[in-house]
Amino acid sequence: MSGSQEAKFLFDPYMDWVENEGVPVTEDFGVDLLAVETGPWARLDTNGAVVHLKGRGDFISIFIVDIPPGGKSSPQQHLYEEVIYVLSGHGSTSIETEDGAKHSFEWGPKSLFALPLNAKYQHFNASGREAARLASTNDLCLVLNLFHNQDFVFNNKARFPGRAGKSNYFSGEGDFIPKKPGRHMWETNFIPDLSRFELRAWSKRGAGSSNMKFILADGTMHAHSSEMPVGTYKKAHRHGADFHVYSVTGSGYSLFWYEGDADFERVDWRHGVVFAPPDGMYHQHYNTSNEPARYLAVALGSLRYPFTSEKMNLFAGVDVDVEDGGRQIEYADQDPRVHEIYLEELAKNGVESKMGDYVDETALKKKTA
Questions:
Q1: What is the pLDDT of residues 3-22, one digit of tens each?
Q2: Which residues, including other chains, have CB under 8 Å from residue 359's CB and lie 6 or more apart?
Q3: Rounded to the nearest 5°, which phi and psi values hold at 129?
Q4: What is the band of 36 on the pLDDT scale with cuts at 50, 70, 90?
Q5: How far apart are CA 224 and CA 231, in angstroms?
Q6: SS3 breakdown of the chain: % helix, strand, coil, rounded to 5?
Q7: Which domain, by its residues, includes 52?
Q8: How many Å is the Cα radius of gyration of the chain?
Q9: Same domain assignment for residues 136 and 45
């Protein structure tokens, strides 16, 4: 080693890569992805940005792909997984799988899809007037920090048979895999409109709650969608870092706190907003709109491939009371302030609470009237 060359020490290959890509970087607790500044991204031959959430952990982050009217990204291929949620615009994606077969599908706002590992692909904006904005939640930070070799990640010819799944997985079809409430799975590669996808009841997570877990492109990346009816909210729980939560329909807010905290952190959300609860931080989601509120959560470690023991334990105890060794706070044990705050927020929006069967609201309604 040359005497003038300093040895690498406490080096982060992923963050070094981000800096060298030269695109805008946004970091915050919660972010409105529709408002994020983007700039030219030479690698993609379109505009883009990187978003780092405070609670992202070590495994995943977000790229924004911002395709101008009539534009397209350059062809891509890489050895990391990504789950893509369409924030705005209409277009299509073409994919060439390991067997040489080519697939193409059209997407629009609130579409969800995954790219099979190391498959060749390209995005196209179908509109000549409006930009298309995609949010890619991906595990490049894990892969690049593990191998610290960009050529291995971006120019690897390895093939992964079976990752593409059935050919109809690219057309919006899929297979339902029944397990039990909260663990039911839908296997596919593409969901045309997540806001209209049928979820299944999961009452243990809250009043009228529903949910579906997704297996996308046989990946290790996890995705699930949950919905809260009008006038309701979920039970509080906690887990490890890296769950990136995207608002899909409705509007509301989420509260965050560590055990023993005197005050709450808060993020208000609507379509386009994403946040990630930090490691071990309790959080609770509240629907304050006059329509069901649905969200998408993306993380590393799926029901098929949990990846870490933390994810394995989470999927086993996500709806189990903390008193019984789980991760969840039941309504009867929650801080009384959270329901008082909720009633105040509903009153501002002219929405009636549907929580009377779960929480004694008599005294609180008099207080907030």
A1: 567 888 989 999 999 999 99
A2: 331, 339
A3: -120, -30
A4: very high
A5: 22
A6: 20, 35, 45
A7: 21-154
A8: 21
A9: yes
In a shared domain, residues 198 and 327 = yes
pTM above 0.90, yes or no: yes
Distance (Å, whole) CA 273 – CA 26: 13
pLDDT of 316 reads: 83
Backbone phi, psi, residue 51, to 5° = -125, 125
pLDDT of residue 361: 87
CA–CA distance, 277 with 275 (Å, rounded to integer): 7
Alpha carbons 144 and 187: distance in angstroms, whole number: 27
Phi, psi (deg, nearest 5) at residue 78: -160, 155
Identify which of 67, 225, 202, 81 has the alpha carbon closest to the alpha carbon of residue 139.
81
Note whether residue 221 is domain-resident: yes
Per the CB < 8 A criterion, the answer to whether 190 and 113 are in contact is: yes
Whether the predicted pLDDT of 254 surpasses 80: yes
Question: What average pLDDT does this structure show over 219-235?
Answer: 98
Among 340, 320, 335, 332, smallest CA distance to 359 is for 332
